[in-house]
Structures are given as structure tokens and as C-alpha cells.
Specification:
elongated; single chain; 19 helices; 746 residues
Length: 746
């Protein structure tokens, strides 16, 4: 409400009856009243007069001719009536409120309002001016109104245009933001129904069979969302009609000349007025955008039709974008599925590599065929989710035997022997080294029939066919190429394991045979040594007897006799030592008794043994040195064998050390072992001599400056004795020096 800033309360002299202001009976008009009357009749503005009664009620007094023309009511018909007598209840309440406000404020007020006269809505801009009597009571209101309907209609058109643009912009924004199609369609129906102020807006989606379903709806009446709707009168011409972009505009189904069955169909859906616009996705008709009035007819405006066409275009774009987005999502899901599949395959490859690696390690570390192949059946079953995994081996050219098996819930078949001729169609390609897979009905599972996928992979190498790996999958899913290749790799490893086991068995038989031969050889040497010892003993006794007989006869004075006797003594001693060494060597190579261990202090124990060679080294002009680490711990060893080892090594070193060179014996601690070194200078051995130095009866004769003879078993015997005591011995030579190194763990 607007109140004029200038008060314009009119002070008029109250006329005595029967004179009526602006009435038909006027006596002796004053010039001012005559002026007002002329204005009342001639101005183009609408003027009306309202009396304010004592009780505050209002009664119309008169209208000027202009107002009569605009509202279609005569002044005489209006006089004495209340607002409720000529206006609707809502409109009457609105005008009463304005009249009351003018009386309350006592000033001129201005306002705009929409009133309905004879079913036509018109907009008015009104100014109310109060009139006061001699007592300053407001007894009358003078109203001046202007019909502003064209202006308001223009404003409404602009507002509708703005709302229409906002609606289109909102939908375009949702499409741009990639909102879900369902949300776009749902929101579009709501906003469009509110904009059109109709009873129902829905979106109908066509199916392949020309039927359709309501996929989005906004309604104030019975909902149709989700229903499959087929018009019985919807002939082939209707799709063609919509496909050409035609629009159906029905203001009243009973006045549109429709077929009776079509009218009945629309009436069953509570449709009175219908506006249908086709929705296209690319060049194909996708669906229909429909606005409906349900309880009365409706005159559809061209702007409303244009709006639906624009919205249908936007919906088509949204549907196309949703399809593209779905295709993208499907492609993304497919790529993700392929990625997961490749990831699973990669993991399966890693698992198979681990299985092959474990098999290789088992084959390398163990010759037990059973352990390797039983592990293979179990791990293959777990890796490929099998119901059963078997390895069968060919026992003859006509028979196969299931040697290894792992199963989760199927009957056990391990040990079962099958005739190849009974299933020749299966074994013929397998014998030709071809992988085979097929579906098989598992017997004994009635009444429920169980069909499983089976694969057989032959186990073979360059020497021939060995057996087959059988895999049973608890579904009808076939084994792919990737799985077949992996199983073939496992079959190759199985072939290696089987061949290795066979070779091991052959080697074991050969080893037993060699051990038996070695035992017979040792027994022969032992018997030979025993047999040789008896004549050597007899010869030695004979020499001693001969010497005692010849001495009294003074035959020894003959020069050659003592020499011959000395030769006999030396050779007898040499042969006796050879026999003893042979006996010791055969004893150590057989199964000797464990050594008798005694803790010794090398510092004090080594010295007398080394010093016993002092005279020999002095005689041969050799330097003999001894160096023992004083911090050496006690060494537990067999004293007899240890003394024999040191003595034989010193004998060997002294024999091959030239005059003027040195011999050194040292002992020191290294980590958790005692190391003894016996070295000499002036001697350097070739690699061939180093590799053969511990061989029995091998002599370094060309390096013996003293031409000492020996049995040739000394170093071989030393090596056996060191090993018997749990130690190790090796020899190094270089830079004019040769060193024997003996290590004994503490």
C-alpha cells in the first residue's frame, strides 16, 4: 500500500436531502459541484464512490461511465451493494482491506490489485481519497482506478520468459554437470508442472516393441510412474506422426475429434487436455514429453508448446549424454574387469612360477619322486580350484596306473590301473603328446547330474612318453590357453622329476654294485697284505738267522756279504711298511672305529716330534723351524693318528727339500679351528702334481734330491687319517714354496 505524502482529505459541505452527491437529482449546483460533476462524467479514468457507514461497513454509491464500460456493471445496479455482492469472496476481502486501511490512516492511499469481473481477470491501479463531514468523520471514499492489465500481461510475459529461460538453463546445467538422467528427468517434470500449473507432466520412454513405460512423472492426481502403457488405438501412423516431429495438442479430448477408444483410453488415465511433444536422441525417437490437465479442458499457449519442444531437445541431449556416459562406464568397467583379469592372470603366473620354482628346488634337493609329484597334485588343485588332480604313469604299453592323486570331495582313485584299449579315443592323442580337454558326466551322482570339465596333459621328454596329468574342474568352465601352457610347464618339470628318480634308482644300483666291488677289493687287499706279511716275516727271520750263522764263521769279513745283508734288511723293512700301510689304508676306507679323543697342548706336544727330525735336517743341511701360537686352546684328537700325520708330512717335506732351504712347522688359531702348516722352500709343484699328490703310489721322484724311497702310500694315508679325525688337508705351491695345511675344528 502507498500513502500519498500530501494529505488530500476533501472538506465538502453536507447537502441536505434529497440532494445526492454525483446523483441524478441536483438542485442549485454550485460552480465547484458542477465542475466535479463534469469531471466525473467526462474523464477517461475510472471513478467510483463508496460510502462508509456508521458501523464501519461499506456500500457502493456510484460509478462513472468509464468504469461502467470497463467492468461491465451499470452504476444503478451497483448502488447500495456491498463488495461481496459483486465480487468473489477472495476479491471482496482484498478490496475491504484497502478501504479499511484508507479509513484507518485517514489519508489518500494507492495500490495495485487483480480483480475478476464476469470471469475475466483485470489489473487495476487505484487511488482512494477519504471525504470528511463537518465532524471530521470519514463518511465517503472517492476511488480513481486505471486499467493496467496490458502492462501486467506484458510484465507476466517477461516473467514467464525469464522463468522459461531459468528452467532451460537449470536443465542445461544439470546436463553439463553430468547429473544422472533419472534425476534430470524427475526434476524436469516437477519444474515444468509448476511452470505450466497443470495437473500432470510425465516422460514416456519407448521400447523396442513400440510399447512404453512412464519413467518420470510429477502429478497432483493418481500417479502413473513405472507403468507400462500401451494405447489400444495407437496405430502405426502415430509413431510415424511423432517421428516426423509433429506435436499433438488436445485442449479437450471430447471436442478434438478423437476415436472413441482413444477417448476412453485417455479418460481412464484421467486426462482431459493433452500436450505431447516427441523426444529425439540423435535421429531416433526416444520418447514423449507430455503435459496434461486432468479435470478440465485447457487452452495451450504457443509459448507453452515452444517450451516443451525446447525441453524435449534438452532431454534428448541428456539421454544421449547418459547413454555415452553409460557406454563410458561400461567400457571403464570392462577395462577394469580386464585389468583385474590380467592382474589375476599375473598372480596366477607368479603362483605357477613359484610352484615351478619349488618343484625345481625339490628336484634339485631331493630325488624322491613321490614327494615331488604328490606336492604337484595338491598345489595344482589348490591353484586352479580343482575338484581333483591326478598323475598317472604308464606301467606297460597297454596299462596306466594312477600313481598320485589329490581330491577334495570326489572318490579316491589312487592305485587304480586302466587298460589303454578301453579308452583308446582318449589315450591315442595323449600318446601322440597332445593336450586333451572335454566335459564328462561324473558317475554315481544321480539324481543330480554333475558335469565337470576335464583336461589331460601328457608328461614326456626326448626319450618318450611317461604319463599324464589329469585335472578335473567342478564346473563346465573350460581351461583357457593360459592355464594349458602353465600346466604343460608343470608337466615338463614332472618329466624331469620322474627321469631323475629313475636315474637315481639306476645310480643307486650301480653304487651298491661299486660298493660291493670296493668291499671285495678291500677284502682282497687285506687278505693279500696278510698273505704277504707271512713270507716277509719268514724272509726277515731267515736273514737274521743267516747273519747269526755267518758271523762265527767270519764270512762277514768278505766285503759283499754285509752289503747283501743290509739290502735284505732294508727291503724287508720296506715291504713290511708297505704291507702295514696297505692294511691301515684298507681299514680307513672300510668302516673304521671312531677315534679315541684326548685333549693335547700343541705347544708342548709338537716340540719333541719336530725335534726328532733335527739330526736328519742338519745332515741334509736344511733349516728346521717351529712356531706355535701360545694362545692355542687344547685340541681334542687321537694322539696316535695325529703323531703319524705329523711324522709322515715331515718325512715327505724333508725328502723333497733341497740343501740350504728351510722347513717350517707352525700352528695357530683361525676362527673356530686350529690350523697346522708344514711348508718348505726351494720346491714348487705344478698343477698336475698338486692334483695327484694324494693319490696312492704317486711319487715326485724328479724332485727328490736325496733319492729316498718310500711306499707311495704315505700322503694318501695322511689324507684318510685327517678325514678320520674330522679335519681337512690341502696343499698349495707357488713362489718357490710348498705348504701343507691341516685344519681341525675345535
Amino acid at each position: 500500500m502507498n500513502i500519498n505524502p500530501m494529505e488530500s482529505t476533501m472538506e465538502l459541505t453536507k447537502l441536505s436531502p434529497p440532494q445526492i452527491l454525483f446523483g441524478t437529482e441536483v438542485d442549485e449546483k454550485s460552480s465547484s459541484e458542477q465542475f466535479l460533476l463534469s469531471m466525473y462524467d467526462s474523464v477517461q479514468a475510472s471513478i467510483f464512490v463508496v460510502d462508509v457507514l456508521e458501523d464501519g461497513d461499506f456500500r457502493y454509491v456510484a460509478l462513472n461511465p468509464t468504469h461502467e464500460r470497463w467492468i461491465g456493471i451499470r452504476s444503478d445496479d451497483l448502488r447500495g451493494k456491498k463488495p461481496e455482492d459483486i465480487l468473489s469472496p477472495n476479491d471482496a476481502a482484498k478490496v475491504r482491506q484497502h478501504y479499511a486501511e484508507c479509513v484507518l490512516f485517514g489519508k489518500t492511499i494507492s495500490y495495485e490489485q487483480c480483480l475478476q469481473f464476469q470471469g475475466i481477470e483485470t489489473w487495476w491501479s487505484t487511488t482512494l481519497t477519504p471525504l470528511r463531514d463537518a465532524n471530521s468523520r470519514i463518511y465517503r471514499l472517492i476511488g480513481t482506478s486505471s486499467n493496467i492489465t496490458p502492462v501486467k500481461q506484458a510484465e507476466q510475459a517477461v516473467g514467464l520468459q525469464v522463468e522459461r529461460e531459468q528452467l532451460l538453463e537449470a536443465i542445461a546445467g544439470r546436463i553439463h554437470q553430468s547429473v544422472e538422467l533419472e534425476t534430470i528427468l524427475h526434476q524436469t517434470t516437477i519444474e515444468l508442472r509448476q511452470f505450466l500449473n497443470c495437473d500432470r507432466v510425465l516422460i514416456y520412454r519407448f521400447k523396442a516393441d513400440s510399447s512404453g513405460v512412464i519413467i518420470a512423472e510429477s502429478t497432483v492426481t493418481d500417479p502413473l510412474l513405472g507403468k507400462n502403457i500401451t494405447d489400444p488405438c495407437f496405430s502405426d501412423k502415430h509413431p510415424e506422426h511423432y517421428a516426423r516431429g509433429c506435436i499433438q495438442v488436445i485442449e479437450d479430448i471430447y471436442a478434438a475429434g478423437l476415436h472413441p477408444c482413444h477417448i476412453d483410453f485417455l479418460a481412464s488415465l484421467q486426462v482431459r487436455a493433452n500436450l505431447v511433444v516427441p523426444i529425439f536422441k540423435e535421429q531416433d525417437m526416444w520418447g514423449l514429453l507430455i503435459a496434461q490437465h486432468c479435470h478440465k479442458s485447457r487452452q495451450w499457449q504457443q509459448t507453452e508448446t515452444d517450451l516443451l519442444k525446447q525441453l524435449a531437445t534438452q532431454i534428448g541431449i541428456a539421454a544421449e549424454q547418459a547413454e555415452l556416459r553409460q557406454q563410458f562406464q561400461d567400457l571403464k568397467a570392462k577395462l577394469q574387469l580386464q585389468k583385474q583379469k590380467h592382474k589375476n592372470q599375473l598372480q596366477q603366473v607368479r603362483n605357477f612360477e613359484a610352484l615351478v620354482r619349488r618343484m625345481t628346488e625339490q628336484i634339485r634337493d631331493s630325488v624322491d619322486e613321490t614327494q615331488v609329484l604328490q606336492t604337484v597334485t595338491q598345489e595344482l588343485a589348490e591353484l586352479l580350484n580343482l575338484a581333483r588332480c591326478q598323475i598317472e604313469l604308464y606301467s606297460t604299453c597297454q596299462m596306466v596306473t594312477i600313481a598320485y592323486e589329490y581330491t577334495t570331495n570326489l572318490p579316491q582313485c589312487q592305485g587304480l590301473t586302466k587298460q589303454i584299449a578301453d579308452r583308446l579315443e582318449v589315450y591315442q592323442p595323449l600318446l601322440q603328446k597332445q593336450t586333451l580337454q572335454f566335459l564328462e558326466i561324473v558317475p554315481g551322482w544321480e539324481p543330480k547330474l554333475l558335469v565337470m570339465s576335464q583336461m589331460a596333459c601328457p608328461i614326456f621328454d626326448t626319450q618318450g612318453i611317461l604319463g599324464n596329468i589329469w585335472l578335473t574342474r567342478p564346473t563346465q568352465e573350460a581351461f583357457d590357453e593360459f592355464e594349458i601352457e602353465l600346466v604343460q610347464q608343470v608337466a615338463n618339470e614332472c618329466a624331469i622329476a620322474i627321469r631323475q628318480a629313475q636315474l637315481y634308482k639306476q645310480n643307486q644300483a650301480q653304487v651298491k654294485e661299486l660298493e660291493n666291488c670296493d668291499r671285495l677289493k678291500n677284502q682282497f687287499l687285506r687278505n693279500l697284505s696278510q698273505e704277504l706279511r707271512t713270507p716277509i716275516t719268514s724272509i726277515s727271520l731267515a736273514v737274521q738267522t743267516l747273519e747269526s750263522v755267518l758271523t762265527p764263521a767270519e764270512i762277514l769279513e768278505i766285503e759283499i756279504v754285509p752289503q747283501l745283508l743290509q739290502i735284505l734288511h732294508n727291503e724287508c723293512a720296506r715291504e713290511s711298511k708297505l704291507i702295514n700301510d696297505l692294511l691301515t689304508l684298507t681299514y680307513l676306507e672300510a668302516e673304521p672305529d671312531p677315534p679315541t679323543l684326548i685333549a693335547i697342548d700343541l705347544q708342548s706336544w709338537l716340540h719333541p716330534i719336530v725335534e726328532s727330525f733335527r739330526d736328519l735336517t742338519n745332515c741334509q743341511r736344511q733349516q728346521l723351524n717351529l712356531s706355535v701360537d701360545p694362545a692355542l686352546p687344547l685340541l681334542e684328537t687321537d694322539i696316535t693318528d695325529m703323531e703319524r700325520i705329523i711324522t709322515e708330512l715331515l718325512n715327505h717335506v724333508c725328502k723333497y727339500t733341497p740343501a740350504g732351504e728351510s722347513i717350517t712347522v707352525s700352528a695357530h688359531l683361525i676362527t673356530d679351528a686350529v690350523e697346522l702348516n708344514i711348508s718348505n722352500s726351494g720346491l714348487e709343484l705344478t698343477s698336475n702334481e698338486l692334483s695327484r699328490i694324494f693319490e696312492p703310489f704317486y711319487h715326485l721322484s724328479k724332485h727328490d734330491p736325496w733319492k729316498h724311497s718310500g711306499t707311495g702310500l704315505e700322503l694318501a694315508l695322511v689324507q684318510k687319517m685327517v678325514r678320520h679325525l674330522g679335519g681337512s688337508i690341502y696343499v698349495e705351491s707357488g713362489a718357490g714354496q710348498t705348504t701343507f695345511t691341516v685344519k681341525f675344528p675345535l
